[in-house]
Amino acid sequence: MNWIKYVEDEVNKIPDKAGVYEIGDFYKGPIYIGGTDNLRMELLRKLPPIGPNQCINDEGFYFRYSLIEKYQEEYLVKRREFEKENGDKPFCNEKFHGPL
User: Fold this and answer.
1) Which of 4, 44, 49, 53 could form an S-S bond across to 96 if both were Cys, CB 3.0 to 4.6 Å?
2) Hey, what domains does the chain have and what are their CATH numbers?
3) How many angstroms separate the Cα of 84 from the Cα of each of 19, 80, 88?
4) pLDDT tens digits for 64-80?
């Protein structure tokens, strides 16, 4: 998955399909991992600077995604891999306890 600039025009290009996504900081390091039934709507909902997660508003510059119909399992795999490699959840997942 390639990183894409996290702006409305780019988010509007992705399909209204289920999948797993990552939001990255300025250096393209993952700060949030999520999963959803509708990637476009979820990424638009979290889009800085007015999204519900202040951490993403402040630190989210890029995103990448994978289309996966049954995304829940892949979401858990990505989170576990991240936690194993980094010793903790992605920074903005730690700061926000809302839906995937």
Assistant:
1) 53
2) 4-86 (3.40.1440.10)
3) 22, 6, 7
4) 999 999 999 999 999 99
